[in-house]
Design goal:
Structural class: alpha/beta
Oligomer: single chain
Helix content: 40-55%
Low-confidence stretches: none
Bound molecules: 2-deoxy-2-amino glucitol-6-phosphate
Number of strands: 10
Subunit structure: Homodimer.
Number of helices: 12
Shape: globular
Distance between the termini: 31 Å
Main location: cytoplasm
Largest sheet: 5 strands, parallel
Protein name: Glutamine--fructose-6-phosphate aminotransferase [isomerizing]
EC number: 2.6.1.16
GO molecular function: carbohydrate derivative binding; glutamine-fructose-6-phosphate transaminase (isomerizing) activity
């Protein structure tokens, strides 16, 4: 097992360090994805179906497709899919996202959907059950993922989704920007020490909040899921504008709040929301651009190249949140590769 970990202490950290390479490998599937897109029949609606981390990747797909192309899109949890099946027809493209290709709820949903609609599966494990059922298959090319917590496979799912959106929307600019991402991802991995310090500071926290808007609302959900899975700390992801409709009542002195604040059209509103939280005594951990002067008085900040605007930020900002969960887990003496009560793939409904 030591040899398989390639010198790393855990599979999870090894898999996080593989992310820059995974981005390159998944981008090399671009031509295949372009070809699949050209084969789609006529559709006027897209429906994503997935569970867990794959569900969060799907949510980013929904934001991207609706905002960049304007095709009505929805995301359904595979375990809730049967309640929505009557709305499917031959003009719906149903996209299943699954790392393992073996998740029971997702397989069941695919069997229902293929009777009425065209289906596409975005899968990591080659030859898995889902790949034998779907009309089209895109492989995420992340390689085997051993750690129960999904990390590199999430990034590769996102790359596939961005490529899909770039080809569906004939968006050359988005395509060009994707090729910058793998270079910039390496920089994030060089600030491990800083994230370790933040992890030490907050390892005794009982609750965490993760706040993001738009494309980064799903990033907030995924950051909170990683925390829950491997540190056993309660974490909640919220859309920035929704706090004042209830959860702001839970903000108290020294509660850690992770604010996702990339540059872009949503910046000002999210900034104001984070100010409201800070004014109520929360300890802020901000992810933002390294030229943002508004962050000067923030002690814990994780800074990115300003080229990474809000559309691209979900691809890279999540890496810091994966590392944060990993190091809190280590600080607490938990084995992040084998969290209690969880299995790598959920093969029962
Ligand atoms: C991710 O960290 C989790 N272990 C879990 O939520 C997972 O994403 C979910 O079970 C879906 O698995 P799949 O992608 O293999 O279908």
């Amino acid at each position: 097992e030591m040899a398989e970990k390639g010198g790393y202490e855990h599979f999870m950290i090894k898999e996080i360090y593989e992310e820059p390479q995974v981005i390159k490998d998944t981008l090399s599937e671009a031509e295949k994805i372009k070809e699949i897109v050209s084969k789609f029949k006529n559709f006027n609606r897209i429906c994503f179906v997935a569970c867990g981390t794959s569900y969060h990747a799907s949510l980013i797909g929904e934001y991207l497709i609706e905002s960049q192309i304007g095709i009505p899109t929805e995301v359904i949890l595979a375990s809730e899919f049967e309640y929505f099946q009557k709305t499917l027809d031959k003009h719906t493209l149903v996209i299943f996202i699954t790392q393992s290709g073996e998740t029971a709820d997702t397989i069941k949903a695919l069997k229902i959907a293929k009777k009425k609609s065209e289906t596409l599966a975005i899968v990591n494990v080659v030859g898995s059950s889902i790949t034998r059922e779907a009309d089209h298959v895109i492989y995420t090319r992340a390689g085997p993922e051993i750690s129960v917590a999904a990390t590199k496979t999430y990034i590769s799912q996102l790359i596939c989704i961005y490529l899909l959106v770039a080809y569906l929307g004939e968006n050359e600019k988005l395509l060009d920007n994707l090729y910058k991402i793998s270079r910039l991802s390496e920089k994030i991995l060089s600030r491990e020490e800083q994230i370790r310090e933040i992890a030490k500071k907050y390892k005794f926290a009982r609750d965490f909040f993760y706040i993001g808007r738009g494309f980064n609302y799903p990033t907030a959900l995924e950051g909170a899921l990683k925390l829950k899975e491997i540190t056993y700390i309660h974490g909640e992801g919220y859309p920035a504008g929704e706090l004042k409709h209830g959860p702001l009542a839970l903000i108290e002195d020294n509660i850690p709040v992770v604010g996702i604040l990339p540059p872009g059209p949503s910046y000002r509103k999210t900034y104001n929301n984070l100010q409201e939280i800070k004014a109520r005594g929360a300890d802020m951990i901000i992810l933002g651009a390294n030229n943002d002067t508004h962050l000067d008085d923030i002690e814990d900040k994780l800074l990115f190249d300003p080229e990474i605007d809000e559309v691209l930020s979900p691809l890279l900002y999540i890496i810091d949140l994966q590392l944060l969960a990993y190091y809190i887990s280590i600080e607490k003496g938990i084995d992040p590769d084998k969290p209690k009560n969880l299995a790598k793939s959920v093969t029962v409904e």
